[in-house]
Amino acid sequence: MAISKDKKNELVAEVSDMLATSKLTVFASYNGLSVADLQDLRRQAREADVAIKVVKNRLVRVAMSENDTYKNTDTSLLTGQLLYAVSAEDEVSPAKVLDGFAKTHPQLAFVGAFGMEGEVMDATAVKALAGLPTKNELIGQVVNTLLSPVNDITNGLSGNLHALLDGVEAKATA
Known about the structure:
It contains 6 helices and 5 strands. It has 174 residues and is of the alpha+beta class. The protein has 2 domains: 5-132, Alpha-Beta Plaits; 133-174. It has a 5-stranded antiparallel beta sheet, with helices on both faces. The longest helix has 39 residues, at 135-173. The radius of gyration is 25 Å and the shape is elongated.
């Protein structure tokens, strides 16, 4: 059944909004995945604040042509059955979600991505991006690094305090 013109315009507007607010839009081929697999992928993506959208590539091209940022972006990678993963919160999470899902479902394959400035990334760049830590993981690593000297001093002082207490206890029992 064909989609009405109103529905197409609605989808184009939705995709245009999605692209405008997205920090990273990753697109992947999903040939061979079942409906249940796609539902599982969407559930995992929702948990990571990532939206998964399956839209005709032609409608995505129309939405991109209406957006000033993506107007001149190369769309030659948009071929075949593609799903689009977007996140307005984190630059890495769409790639991480799809990469994690692809480990158990090899039918899902990266095709590329669009950055928020309209740049195009190929599949290898997206795969490398998926290996990066998330924003929260990076914050945790920085905090841990900053607290390392404090922890070292605390451990050193508590070690000396324990030795002192052990010495006092030994004197008291003698």
